[in-house]
Amino acid sequence: MSSTPMKSSRQYEAECRYLYSFFSGNGGSDGQKLVEIFSRRSQELKAICQTYSVLYGHDLLRVITSNQKSSAFTKLAYLRMSDPQSRDAEILRKSLGAGSISLGTLIEITCTRSSSELHDIKQQYHSRYQSDLERDISMKVSGGFKEILAAICKSCRNHTHKADTSLAFCDAKTLYESVESGRTIDQKTIVSLLSQRNTSQVKAILLSYKQLYGHEFSKLIKQSKCGQFGRDLRIVIRCIQNPEKFFAKQLRMRNADAREILVRIIVTRSEKDIKDINRAFSAKTGSSLEYLVRREFNGVKEKANETVAAILLELIRG
Hints:
Helices cover 72% and strands 0% of the residues.
């Protein structure tokens, strides 16, 4: 990723003029220039969007979505230029669309973002769609995931609370009893706990649980008496505990959405934990994200695909 120091808005005018020329179709076909622009850090991209609006009186995001160029490049450019919380709200909205629910994407956004980030995402979701995220999840998601994911969304109201070790040990004992004290798992107690503890606290609870009982909580809920709820809860818990492994698993799936997932994960996790994800991916596959990008985009000899691959590789390298 470009490490160029932050510049003043006026100094971003050259980038804006290039983007105007590129998206208007009046020139600007230098792939390397696009790589330089879209691999900049988030704060610089925000400044470019603001400068573009001042220079041309248009929202750069609208310009990007209205162009007829490569679909992969358009999606990447849009994700890169979007405000992170607004972007995630839009991803959630699409995953809850009228068609089939994208459960993997729902888990990805709600369980890998910090409580503070999720709080802001919920606000953006409500502002943009005049709808409540928790309610939409409760209405459109079924099974254990409905209660679990809605509880995670509710918990971000406590996003300002710091992790409390003493409380974590008490909650760890509560989790143990909710599974072992009866013939079936106490779903109500677990959901209630998840709805009251922010992500940092949940991680502290899981760490305390292992210290107390010598094994992961996710292992305890593999018991047959935990049923489908236990299987759903295990996916969410492991995602919160080890997000890099969740992302690596998403990237290993070969389906119709593989390319979109690859672009989304690299873009949204750049400047965060993309290097951890790369290591987790390599540990499972023996190959790197760089190799995956080249295989996905460089097989088709189109300049736009080569540009997309180059931008993604820069974001992985950081």
